[in-house]
Known about the structure:
Layout: H1 3-15, H2 39-42, H3 49-54, E1 56-60, H4 74-77, H5 84-92, H6 101-104, H7 115-124, E2 129-135, H8 162-172, E3 176-181, H9 186-189, H10 215-218, H11 236-253, E4 257-260, H12 267-284, E5 292-295, E6 307-311, E7 313-314, E8 323-328, H13 343-354, E9 358-363, H14 374-390, E10 404-405, E11 438-439, E12 451-456, E13 459-464, E14 472-474, E15 483-488, E16 497-500, E17 503-506, E18 518-524
Parallel strand pairs: 1-2, 1-9, 2-3, 3-4, 4-5, 5-6, 6-8, 8-9
Antiparallel strand pairs: 7-11, 10-12, 12-13, 13-18, 14-17, 15-18, 16-17
Amino acid sequence: MSMTRRTAVGLLSAAGRLCAEPFQQPDIPIAPGPFKPSRASLMEYEIPAWYCDAKFGIWAHWGPQSAPEFGDWYARNMYIQGHRQYNYHVKTYGHPSKFGFKDLIPTWKAENFDPDYLVGLYKKAGAKFFVSMGVHHDNFDLWNSKHQPRWNAAATGPKKNIAQMFRQAALKQGLRFGVSQHLHASYEWMATCFGSDKTGPLAGVPYDANDPQYADLYHEKHKLAANPGDVSQVPESYKRHYLWRLQDLVDQLQPDLLYHDGVIRFERYGLSLVAHLYNQSAKWHGGKVEAVYNSKGMEDCQIGSCVLDFERGIAEGIWPNSFQTDTCIGSWHYDREVKYKTPKQCIDLLVNIVSRNGTLLLNFPLKSDGTLDPKEMEILSEITSWMAVNSEGIYGTRPWKVCGEGPSLEGTARDTSVYKPLPRIPDSSPGATRTTGSRDTGNKPFTEQDVRFTAKGKTLFAFVMGWPEKGILIRALGAAGKVRNVELLGFKGKVRWAQEAAGLRVQMPPDKPCDHAIALKIALG
Length: 525
């Protein structure tokens, strides 16, 4: 940092106007390395082997919006009169003209936060990587941010370098470490805070964000866009700030995975961020790029470039490249009223994703104090027990000829997905921020008639998604080559089986080796 820039930072910090600081600086170059900030250059990227093998990661979607323990998007919705979270906020804290998001932040104390304990639990549950929140749409950084020095977790709220503490815990446990960033949408997403009530005794009274001394948190005052994802009116100054701030995240936290909540935005700035991450990763790993960048834009991930992410969804059929599904056991930020997925739904989702060449990133939202609630602990415990028996059929596997069979696949494009080139989606198209695929609603639970396949060389794993007391006939193995042997993971004895023209018929032992899906280990000749 030059003396001029250092002086400017100090002066603006004292004035409480840090949001303006990065906007006065020239463009920051990306780290030197094999990648340039262009789509042509990024197409040379190859997904690292560790990620293709990992298959399962756990995410802590956590931050100051977790303080009320009342669900996701709180920092936006608390400024929308009549919204569930607005009503709760007024009742609990007061009107947002008097007690705004800036006042909520100090109530997030994280007083019982123990990252070593949490990440230890996640490792036992079978996670191969852990992802910390870096910055959500709320514009609050969870690391000791150079470009958001007043509103970060090391400076206020818990006054702990949350993301860095999570990173250290992950490294101790031998897990890969990732960070999520949701910053690109913040400029428009936060704009509800500039409004006021339309009715009632405080109608027309401006919300707290209209005070310019808090522009470093709420952004400069601007009109609310029709869609919170519309970034077409974002000023160039903010785009530069976006790049510098996330380069700081990369440089300080050295993530193996950077989750981006959307498509690559702000073209040259967004591409510069991806290239910077990959070049830094090459420097950290002796010339080998070990980093993963997630994008939800299919057009971003055509050939190389990054790993495609489906939010709360999965690819329809076997995908040609490794993809990721990110989802949550409940709400993204902690919500004491939410209904969680069952352990079976979580396990079925994992197996279904892996059978299609995917990886599951599963969010366990932390309470305000940094702990998991009893129901979350129960879900985590059941996943732990299941993985202890069946992980051999998950880690390091690749898709087989088909992803599965059974009623859950009938009538779907299960094995016919085509990775077609798509036109680049411009920033002026706010609705084009999601990939296509099936939603992970869990409305139709898998049964013992549903099978999913994974493979390691000549070893095939057939996951039967329920306990087939009367045995199972796997039709795909009727003419798929000779079966040499069949084992049931978690069962020490021999199972009875026969390969027939109709398929592979397997009889089950009296007792099931685990709850939920069972895995047959099949040696093919």
